[in-house]
Every structure is written in C-alpha cells, then in structure tokens.
Write a structure and sequence with these properties.
heterotrimer, A mainly alpha, B mainly alpha, C alpha+beta, A: mainly alpha, 13 helices, 0% strand, B: mainly alpha, 14 helices, globular
Chain lengths: 293, 304, 362
C-alpha cells in the first residue's frame, strides 16, 4: 500500500454511475434457488393445469363446470365453508378473548390444543368426527332419536369444516388482542361507557381487520378441504358431494379434461381468496402500526 | 383519584364475574366438544377390542409398509423444504428487490389451493396422459402412482411452512449483526453459520415440526397421486382410509392413533419452540438498563 | 492511514442523500461528522466503510482507490448505532469473532486469540464480563464491547455511527471522555457521526458540518465556533438569535439599531439577516430615545450562574412566520443588581453579530 495521498482537490477521471453492490453475499444464490424450486414445484405443474384447460373449447369447458352435479357441489362447498367460517369467527373470537384476558387452570394446555387441527392429519379428524357423530357415536346417539342427524349429510360437513378452521381465527385474533392497549378501554370507562359499549365501540373495531382476515383464511381452507370431509359427508351426488370429490370422481373415470376444468375454477377462486387475504393482512398491519404510537 | 374511584375503574375494564365464568365455560365446552372428544374417540375406537387387537393391527405388513412410506416421504420432503425455506427467507428478509411481494405471495399459494388440485397438477405433468407421460413410459420411470409422485405432491403442500416461519423472524431480527460480521471479515457462509443460524434456531425448529406433521398427515394431494396400491403406494393416512372403508374400524383407528400421537408430540415441541421464540423477540425489543442487576451466581473474575 | 473522498454522490429513490462530497481525512485524526438527521452523515460513514456504494465518485485509502473493494477486505472497524453484538455469543466470543473468521493461513492460534481478547477487554475495562451475554449488559457496556470487537482485527480506520445516541446523559459524558482518551492512546484514524454538537466540539480534533447532503464547513472545534462559514453552521452550533433587516453600505439596520458590517461595504439596501449569540446581547432598562430593540421581559430563568432572559419585542417588524422571541444571557449577578422584573420594558442591543446577505433571487 503506497503512502501517497491524493493531492487535495485533485479530481480522478469520472466514473459512470455504479450499480449498487449488496453487502451481504448470497443474493444470487438464494434467489436463484428459490425461483428454481418454485418453478419446478409450483409454476410448471400449475401451468400444466392451465394449458390442459385451454385444450377444451369454451362450450366444453362451460358444460364441465356448470353441470347440475357440479353446481350442486359449488353450493354445498361454498355454503358449508361460509357457515363454518362464520361459526369460527364467533367462537374463535370467544376462545381468543378467554385465552388472552382470563386465567384459569390448564390455560397453557388449552392454548396449545387450539393448534390441534393444524397438526392432526385430516383423515384422522375425518374418521374420529364420523365416529362421534354417527348414529352409534357418543354424540350421535343422543341426537338421532330427536331427529337431528349430524353425520352423512351436509351438517356433518359443516362440523368438520368448523374443526379445521378454528385455529385460523384464534391465531389471527390472539396477537391483536394481546397488543390492544388497555388504556383505550380505561378511557372509555372513565367517560361513562358500560362494558358492552366499550367492547362494541372501542375493542371490536380494532380487532375487526384481524377477524376478517381469520374469516377469509378459514373460508379458503374450508373450500379446498378434502380429507376431513369425505368420511362424514355421505358423498351423495347433488346432496352431500363436495367439489374436490367431483374432481376425484372425474379423474377416476379418466375424464381428465372435466377434472381439469373444475380444478381450474377452484384454482381461480383460490387465487382470488389469496389476494383478498393478502390485502386484508396488509390493511391489518397498517392499522396496528398506527395504534402503536 | 381516591381508592373508590380506582376500584371502580378497574371493575370497569373487566367484565362482571358471572360474564367471565360464562364466557370461559362456553369456550371450554366448545374446545372440549370439537378438539378433545375427537382425540378421545380415536383412542377409544382403537382399543375397542383390547390391546391385542390394537397391536395386531399395527403388526400387519401392509400397515408397516404404510408407516415406512410415510417416513420416507417425510425424510425426503422435509429436508428439501428446509433448504428452500432457509434460502427463500434469506433472500426475502435480507435484500430489497423488485418482485419480492410476488415471490412471497407465490410461497403462500399452497395454503389456499385445495390438496386435490395440488395432486391433480402433478398427474397432469407426470401422468400417462401428461406432458412427460410418454417420455417417462419410454424410460420406464414411474412418478405418478408411485413413490416419487407422492413425495412431489407432499413437497408442494408443505414447502411454505418453514419459509413462512423464518421470513418474519429474520425480518424482525434485522441485518445489523450480519453486516457487523461482514465488516469483521467473515465470508457469507461463516456469517450464516455463526451469526444467523443461532438466531433463527427456534423458528427453524417450529417450522420443521409443522412441516413434518403436515408431510406425514397429508391426505388429499397424496390420494390423487398415489393410485392407492396396497402395500406399495399407501401412506398412513391413505391406509387409514382403506381400512375404514373396509369396515375394519379397529385397525383403521389403530393406525390413526399413531398419527394422533404424532400430532400431540408436534403440539408439545411447537409450544416449547414458540415460547422460546417469543422470549427472544421480547428481549430484542427491550432497551438495555443502565445499571443492570448482575446475573445470578455471577462471579467477579473470569476463569482464564 | 489517510482517507480521501472525491465527488461522492448517493441517492435513495428520489432522495438525494449526498451531493458532490469532497473530504480529506488525515492519518490518526479523530473526526466528527456533525449535522441534523437526514443530512447524509451516516450515509457517508457507511460509504467509507463499504456498507453502501456511492452512485458516482470514489473513496481512497492512503491514495489507493477502494471504492470497489468489498467491506470485508477494507479492514475497517465499524461500531453500529445499536451495537449489533452477536446475541448468541458470549462477550469473549463476540470480541474474538473477527479473529476466528480469518482465513486459515492468517488465523491466530487459540492461545493468541485468548491473549488478544483479554488484552482488549482490559483496555475497555470490562474483562470481568467476558462470560456474560449481550442481554446481560447495560447500554454503556455493550457500547464498549462493540468497540473492543471492532478493534480486535486492528483496523486502519475506526468508524462509529452515533456511538452515544442510545445512552442516558451521564453515561454519555463518561464515554465521551473515555473515547477521547482511548484515541489518544491508540492513534487510529477515527470518524464518528453525531447530531449532538456538544459531543462533536468536545471530543473531535476536527468537525465536519453537513446539511442536506452537502459539507457546509470543516475545521477545528474552535474554528467552526468562532468563524461559522454559513447561516446553517451558525444556527446549528449553540443558541442563536436571528434578526431580519436591511444592509446598506456597511451598516445593517434593524429596528432601532445599526450594526457595522464592514464585510458588506458595497451592499445597496439589500435584505440581510444577523445572527447574534444570547451572551452578545446587551440588556438595559428602557429610557426613551435609547438605541436598541425595545422589548418586554416575558420570562427570566435564573438558575445557576447565568440568567436566561426571554424578551418579546414591542414592535414586531420581523417577517411573518418568524418567531420574534429574543433570548439573552447575562450573568445572574448582573441580573440581580439591575433588578429586572418580569413584564418590564427593556432595551436590547447586539454587541456583536454575524451578518449574511439574503441570497439574490435569480
């Protein structure tokens, strides 16, 4: 290293504008691998789906996705998912509230148990719910004599979907409740609000985005659900047949085109739901960022 | 504020006791009905004919090949997804670049796609009528209706878990420590291995455990791809379905009980990992005290 | 090792962080980069370190162009604003890190590393903390460990980003003195960034004032205080009062007072403004016809040896939006002798002022 110093004020030859150098190494390697993996696992197979769909003519496509059985399955799938997600919103909020605000023996275990539907294989959930709700099951045996049948019909589907959607609402609302400022509630109380007024006017609006996000996530999961539903559903066409099952039965009959068509419809709806969820999540983040002043 | 006002104010920010008990009661009943009862049902049905029948069901050769296949699938899928998760989290959390949010959305995709659709797309690519079908038949390579297809479908459904866990964690931890390591002369690998990895340890464990649970329990996607060939292409969940449909209730629940046990172990490890992660994130956010209390048992000198 | 910065430009998105910065830093100097937030001082520091790259321009270490050299190879020591200690390593391992990651050929033996780390910890007077973890240290202790870690690799230049920003006032004062003494002992070329002018003036050999990405002035602390080169510098260092008036042929006319400004002898009725330090204001009781600005004493804060007076001019001829409040300082003794009361009318005249002409609108 020379000890020469550039004379003061000397101007070295001009250099063109540089591209910024990333200090932390590994950008190209990690980005390259990530994109490669995603292409291989996600993009190429998904594009196969789309290409296959394009081999159908429009009337063929339309016929495949709007046959009476298929339409009935849409009504069932989306209807049951909607009801189940709504139930989860109510009870999920309740469970989250109880876990955050109250203490009781065994709370830690209950908290861990909320994630059971995440961890339990769907097939296991399916057969155990069926065992519980069928005519000779622990719960079914009490309800069937009264004419309430919960297994092998749409009711069973709703119950299975409530099971698998529960953690979504609880886990989305819980952190928001934990971060909620007690001072806002105290201020409302000082100003004369009753507990219910404080909840409905102060607390609820601040957790509404999280509730909505949880609802959307539970709904999206329920729409695609297969394993926990097919055991308890009964699977009768036009009555208790869900859309994923239609795809499978078309596959078993080698009607690849028909299966692909219906799958495309489901995929498009998944995309839309994914975008909605992402939008809700960034709305929720913006809201909560404003609160932590 | 005098004492009375303070008490009233505190009463004002919590519900009346009867409300609290009622809400807690309803929540617990709901949880019991929907979560505890199904678990109990699995145990009861599996042992309905006693321990011998239970053990017999698990010793059956088809059950064993199902268990083996499930483990092989997880053994391949989870490490691959681990590498992906770490790579994706590194590039998303440490750098700014165009298309980052698109990449993140793409990673979230499997969560909203139905597992049946997930299985279908692999049939469309590798099946007999698929893109590579003729080429594969020519070379006598079986992907669909064989183990590779099962592994691929499982990878699709489980790859987001580790990435989604690490990305927010690494974003919260920031780049300062890695930059400090760079200034001190560490190479990229040294920086990752000595600085980043210890910091994300618990997030990694959390992600791996969830990924594994889902990989072993995946049903819909694998069902489409596997062909249900007994003894060869049945994972544990598929085997449960077959047994159940054949009215072999005890055997079905016996295999299911293993999966349920796995789920409980997953929950336990997950809770521990979650607790450790939370306490680390909290320590991050706290400002250092100016005069800290010395660590318990600390001695003044250092051992040389 | 000396540093030469030539024509450095840097922008982030649409924000121009640095505009054509030129600077020379002598070997062994302790330099302060001083300025308000957003002035570009941290960006400049990071460019010298190699953590950012300039859009155009170059950095030279002792005459050699290091602009394209990766930060790892530059052999600089950097102390981050929030310390960036490796939270899963003990204090000892933190300080040893730079030595442990050297390539095999250059890596010292374990015994040598132990010796060096122990010596450094003794230097920063924290050898008794070697087995602790960063979460068990106070802010001031973390700062010193971060410094020890940076020094372990024997850097040619030491760069500190707001080193005392996150600490409380008492600890800050102690560490300031300590840093100065450390520098006097080690003689490593050091640059630190701060927005605290007291810190810069107290610690550094030379102060470089920056504002909006441009170097406003560079000189010794005494220099920049006594001879501020621009309105920004004058306003940034110390308290100051700002008066608007008109300059004509060597005289600045404010309300009721004229100040000699020989440097503006050829000004023709130009708009001008004058900076006056609070202790350069003369405060007397009002008598009709007295020269000076007539003002009411709105508040007098007499704590310690100085009386700080807040005065509001009776006639406000300053431009709109300009706070007319005048701050004056006189010795508390004098205040008590003169016996001023709040609400009284007084007359204020500047003994000394620095006058700048309003830049001509082009």
């Amino acid at each position: 290293m020379t000890s020469a110093v550039l004379p003061h004020g000397a101007v070295p030859p001009p250099v063109a504008r540089r591209t910024p150098v990333r200090v932390l190494p590994g950008f190209n390697l990690t980005l390259g691998f990530t994109v490669f993996y995603l292409c291989l696992i996600v993009l190429i197979p998904l594009s196969a789906l789309l290409f296959k769909t394009f081999t159908l003519t429009w009337p063929q496509f339309w016929e495949a996705v709007t046959g009476p059985r298929v339409l009935a399955s849409y009504r069932l799938t989306f209807g049951a998912s909607f009801i189940a997600a709504m139930v989860n919103v109510v009870f999920g909020l309740l469970v989250a509230w109880v876990l955050v605000r109250y203490s009781f023996p065994g709370k830690k275990i209950v908290d861990a148990l909320v994630d059971l539907p995440f961890a339990l294989p769907t097939a296991v959930a399916g057969i155990s719910l069926t065992a519980l709700l069928a005519g000779n099951g622990w719960i079914g045996q009490f309800l069937e004599p009264h004419g309430i049948q919960l297994a092998f019909n749409p009711n069973g589907i709703v119950i299975a979907l409530i099971f698998i959607g529960l953690p979504f609402v609880v886990r989305t609302v819980q952190p928001v409740l934990e971060d909620a400022e007690k001072e806002l509630e105290e201020a409302a109380t000082c100003l004369g609000a009753t507990r219910w007024q404080t909840f409905s006017r102060v607390v609820f609006p601040s957790i509404a985005p999280a509730l909505l996000t949880g609802f959307a996530m539970a709904f999206a999961r329920a729409v695609g659900e297969y394993g926990s539903v097919i055991f308890i559903a009964g699977n009768m066409p036009m009555v208790s047949e869900i859309t994923p099952l239609i795809i499978i039965s078309k596959l078993e009959q080698y009607d690849y085109a028909g299966a692909t068509a219906v799958a495309t419809v489901m995929l498009v709806i998944s995309f839309i739901l994914l975008l909605v969820i992402n939008g809700l999540q960034s709305w929720q983040r913006k809201r909560s960022a404003g609160n932590t002043q | 504020m005098n004492q009375n006002n303070i008490r009233t104010a505190q009463r004002g920010t919590t519900e009346a006791p009867w409300v609290r008990y009622a809400l807690t009661g309803i929540a617990l009943v709901f949880m019991f009905l929907f979560l505890v009862l199904p678990l109990a049902a699995v145990a009861t049905e599996a042992l309905r004919k006693g321990w011998d029948a239970y053990a017999e069901a698990l010793r059956e050769p088809d059950a064993w090949s199902a268990i083996r296949l499930t483990f092989i699938t997880a053994l391949v899928a989870v490490p691959l997804n681990l590498v992906f998760g770490v790579a994706a989290a590194w590039c998303i959390a440490k750098y700014e670049f165009k298309g980052k949010s698109f990449l993140t959305t793409l990673i979230d995709l499997p969560f909203s796609v139905s597992p049946v659709v997930a299985g279908l797309i692999y049939v469309l690519v590798f099946g007999a009528q698929g893109w590579f079908g003729p080429w594969l038949a020519e070379h006598d390579i079986k992907i669909v209706f064989a183990v590779p297809g099962i592994i691929l479908a499982t990878i699709f459904v489980t790859f987001p878990f580790i990435a989604r866990e690490l990305i927010p964690l690494m974003q919260a931890q920031g780049n300062d420590e890695e930059q400090a390591a760079q200034v001190l002369g560490a190479t990229g690998w040294q920086t990752f291995w000595y600085v980043t990895l210890p910091n994300i340890k618990w997030g990694l464990i959390y992600g791996v455990i969830l990924c594994n649970a889902r990989a072993m329990g995946e049903f819909g996607a694998v069902s489409v791809v596997s062909g249900h060939i007994r003894g060869q292409t049945n994972t544990m969940p598929l085997h449960v379905e077959i047994l159940y449909n054949e009215y072999q209730s005890v055997a079905a629940f016996a295999v299911a009980s293993l999966l349920a046990l796995l789920a409980l172990v997953t929950l336990a490890i997950k809770s521990v990992a979650e607790w450790r992660m939370e306490s680390e994130l909290k320590a991050l956010a706290e400002l250092p005290p100016e005069r800290p209390t010395p660590a318990r048992g600390a001695t003044a000198g250092i051992a040389n | 090792m000396s540093i030469e910065i030539r024509n450095v430009n840097k922008h982030f998105g649409t924000f121009q962080a640095l505009s054509d910065v030129n600077l020379d830093i002598a070997s062994g100097e302790l330099l302060a980069l001083l300025g308000p937030s957003g002035c570009g001082k941290t960006t400049l520091l990071r460019i010298i370190a190699g953590l950012e790259t300039p859009d155009t321009g170059s950095i030279h270490f002792s005459g050699e162009d290091t602009t394209d050299v990766h930060v790892r190879e530059r052999n600089v020591g950097f102390v981050f604003q929030h310390y960036a200690l490796f939270r899963h390593m003990s204090v000892f391992e933190n300080v040893a890190f730079g030595l442990r990651v050297k390539p095999r050929g250059q890596r010292p033996s374990d015994a040598q590393i132990k010796q060096k780390v122990t010596d450094l910890l003794k230097l920063v007077q924290l050898d008794w903390l070697a087995d602790r973890y960063p979460s068990q240290l106070s802010g001031g202790q973390r700062q010193r460990i971060a410094l020890a870690r940076a020094l372990a690799v024997e850097p040619q230049v030491l760069l500190l980003d707001e080193p005392f920003g996150a600490l409380d006032a008492k600890v800050r004062k102690e560490l300031r003195r300590w840093l100065r003494r450390l520098h006097d002992e080690l003689h490593v070329t050091s640059i630190f960034v701060t927005h605290d002018q007291e810190e810069a003036l107290e610690v550094a050999d030379r102060v470089v004032l920056m504002n909006k990405g441009v170097v406003e002035q560079s000189g010794s602390p005494q220099d920049v205080w006594d001879h501020p080169a621009s309105p920004f510098v004058y306003g940034f260092l110390g308290d100051v009062n700002l008066f608007h008036g008109r300059a004509h042929e060597g005289l600045l006319h404010l309300d009721g007072v004229a100040i000699h400004t020989p440097e503006h002898a050829d000004a023709q009725n130009a708009q001008a403004f004058a900076y006056v330090r609070p202790h350069d204001l003369d405060v007397q009781r009002y008598t009709p016809g007295a020269s000076g600005i007539v003002a009411t004493l709105s508040r007098a804060i007499v704590v310690g040896p100085i009386a700080r007076l807040e005065l509001l001019p009776v006639e406000n001829n300053q431009p709109a939006g300009h706070d007319p409040l005048i701050e004056a300082q006189i010795p508390a003794q004098q205040f008590r002798e003169l016996g001023f009361k709040e609400g009284e009318t007084l007359v204020v005249s500047p003994r000394k002022a620095r006058v700048f002409l309003q830049p001509q609108a082009s």
